[in-house]
Design a protein that fits this description.
Adenine-n6-DNA-methyltransferase TaqI, Chain A, domain 2; 23 strands; 21% strand; 4-stranded antiparallel sheet; 430 residues; alpha+beta; 3 domains
Length: 430
């Protein structure tokens, strides 16, 4: 720490405030935070000033920075920051280095108290240096956020194409209308919408439509589907290989070997909390970049989901499926299918929820039916969706590298090990 840095108490630079109940609030545009993140959007705010949100109960290390109107529930503290003394975003980054779990005063439920937080020691450089450090780290977070926003758009584009072809059956409806064939009552409204859409008569679109049938047939499992397509359980679209249970005695002391990939690693990447092992396991548990992972156990709203792994070689932990494709050309179809089915998975898990956790079983996935188009249609879908998927994937990889750089710079900037000019040079290169 440089000589011009001072040590003070957290309570000297901010006032800790309690969150409030949100249940009676009407829906709106203002984010309502809990210790797990944004829970909903409401019509009122507790504050419109910059603030750092610190869990009172629950996941104690989940702190948040907000610079817009917000509401917090009663499991989350919010803060009024003395901006004449400390730059709010600098303070946020410094507190990111704090292990709040070590400050836990609860027994059954992890908890923090105002006195404990007020007594926390923090180190502050001059205000100008605080701003410079926050701007460096913030520039990386801005790039990560831009990637996230771009990926939201790309994912929406791919999902729209998937839905058009495999849920709404637009090419089949268009073909049926052109051929004068009957439209099932369940698809009549969609057919009327298609009549009002100016059809793309390009050679490419005509070639695509020619791959689809021009009629429907009824199935007991899914109702009306394109004629000639098959119905299959979701469990049959790929091989779902569950991860292994790793015993603590096999954890390496100095992060030797390969990381053990849990839901935390899927969401946040490899971190100081990640366990490593040198234990050799069957190859079926080994994953690498690009693997499709399906988390089937955890919080129904935040953990039951499908992900693409970008963290390099690792061992897959239990409660997560490695989705192994039958053919390489199936990748985008299977990925977007599982993403499309997420609301169904979430509801199933929520119905089984106990102590905050829910799960999806193999039996559940065998009871969820989906369509199976021809191999040629799947190949063509892959050709059209791969470019979107690859851009999405590259942004994902970029964000993972930016996160690594930010997390490397953070403790070094806060300790003075690396100075601002050197940090700026590193950031400018990405």
């Amino acid at each position: 720490m440089a000589s011009d840095w001072i040590v003070t108490k957290l309570g000297d630079v901010l006032e800790i405030k309690y969150g409030k109940d949100h249940k009676k609030l009407d829906a709106g545009d203002i984010p309502c935070f809990g210790s797990g993140g944004i829970m909903r959007h409401v019509e009122e705010s507790l504050s419109e000033q910059e603030s750092i949100l610190i869990p009172r109960k629950g996941s104690l290390n989940n702190i948040y920075y907000v610079n817009q109107p917000f509401w917090t529930v009663d499991t989350l503290f919010w803060t009024k920051i003395d901006s004449d003394t400390v730059f709010p975003k600098f303070l946020f980054y410094q507190l990111k280095l704090t292990d709040f779990v070590s400050l836990n005063v609860g027994s059954a439920v992890p908890s923090l108290t105002v006195p404990v937080l007020n007594d926390l020691e923090i180190s502050l450089p001059p205000l100008t240096e605080q701003k410079a450090i926050a701007n460096i780290l913030g520039s990386l977070d801005d790039k990560i956020e831009l990637n996230r926003e771009m990926n939201e758009t790309l994912e929406a584009m791919a999902q729209a194409l998937f839905k058009s072809w495999f849920v709404d059956f637009d090419p089949v409806i268009d073909n049926a209308l052109a051929a004068g064939n009957s439209i099932p009552d369940e698809l009549f409204e969609r057919a009327e919408q298609r009549k009002t859409i100016k059809q793309n008569n390009s050679e490419e679109n005509q070639a695509i439509c020619s791959l689809f049938p021009d009629d429907f047939e009824f199935t007991e499992e899914m109702g009306w589907i394109p004629r000639g397509w098959e119905v299959t359980p979701a469990y049959e679209v790929a091989d779902f290989i569950n991860g292994s249970s790793f015993k603590s005695q096999y954890f390496s002391d100095e992060n030797e070997g390969l990381p053990i990939v849990k839901i935390a690693e899927i969401k946040n990447g490899i971190s100081e909390q990640t366990k490593f092992t040198t234990q050799e396991m069957p190859e079926k548990y080994l994953i690498n970049d690009g693997a499709i992972l399906f988390s089937w156990s955890g919080n129904p709203d935040t953990s039951i989901d499908t992900f693409i792994w970008t963290g390099g070689k690792g061992w897959l932990n239990q409660h997560i499926f490695n989705v192994v494709l039958h053919k390489a050309s199936d990748k985008t179809f299977v990925y977007y299918l599982l993403k499309y089915l997420k609301p169904i998975f979430t509801e199933i898990a929520r119905d089984k929820q106990t102590t905050g956790l829910g799960h999806i079983t193999v039996k559940d996935m065998k009871r969820i039916y989906t369509i199976k188009p021809s191999d040629l249609i799947l190949e063509v879908f892959g050709l059209h969706s791969n470019s979107i998927f690859e851009r999405w994937y590259q942004n994902l990889c970029s964000s993972r590298e930016l996160t690594k750089l930010r997390d490397t710079l953070l403790p070094k900037l806060m300790s003075g090990e690396i100075r601002i000019p050197d940090a700026l040079a590193l950031v400018e290169d990405v």
